[in-house]
Write a structure and sequence with these properties.
single chain, alpha+beta, Nuclear Transport Factor 2, Chain: A, five-stranded mixed beta sheet
């Protein structure tokens, strides 16, 4: 019976059928490899040194982008702040639960936040540079005025900058209050 089944299988997979099956297996394998490569490329940024036509940027230049943003806060003008964000920029703000996904929503947040007269100061930062993308993350403290009282608000942050034309703009900005009080935080 096994011999008979083996010869039937062999006859079924002879000639054209074998070629079709080999081609399908090759296409499936290539599809898997390309799919994995595409998925990986969307997750892991390509280091700048691996590219040949990346914009030139230094860590101090990226650090200065925080100063540009912070200075725009000091103007009290939400439009000035919004100009730091890419058109499709995303803001995950410190004192709002709503994700802001465009200039109108980002402006709406800053109309409220600027009423607190915020001034930020970097406490710790880590800047990483990639091809056309830079990430600045760390901790900062905002001095805000709330009901006539000055308060210090420590927070964590991540700015993801993207080169758009000749400007570096904020593609993503995540800011969250520290989960532990500063006095109680472990060293």
């Amino acid at each position: 019976m096994n011999q008979k089944l083996g010869s039937v299988t062999q006859n079924l997979l002879s000639g054209k059928a074998q070629k079709v099956m080999r081609r399908m297996l090759a296409q499936s394998a290539l599809s898997s490899v390309f799919g994995a490569a595409l998925a990986f490329s969307n997750i892991v940024p390509i280091p700048a040194q691996a590219q040949t036509s990346c914009p030139t940027v230094t860590r101090p230049e990226i650090a200065d982008l925080f100063n540009r943003w912070n200075n725009s806060l000091k103007t009290g003008d939400p439009n000035a702040v919004v100009r730091n964000y890419a058109r499709n920029g995303v803001l995950l703000p410190t004192v709002s639960n709503k994700v802001r996904r465009n200039h109108d929503e980002i402006k709406d947040y800053f109309v409220q936040f600027l009423a607190l007269k915020p001034v930020g100061k970097i406490n710790y930062r880590n800047i990483r540079l990639y091809c056309g993308v830079a990430i600045d993350s760390g901790t900062y403290t905002f001095t805000v005025t709330n009901n006539g009282r000055t308060e210090q608000v420590p927070a964590r942050y991540t700015f993801v900058y993207n080169r758009v034309g000749d400007r570096w703009l904020i593609a993503e900005h995540h800011s969250s209050a520290m989960p532990e009080s500063v006095a109680a935080s472990p060293q």
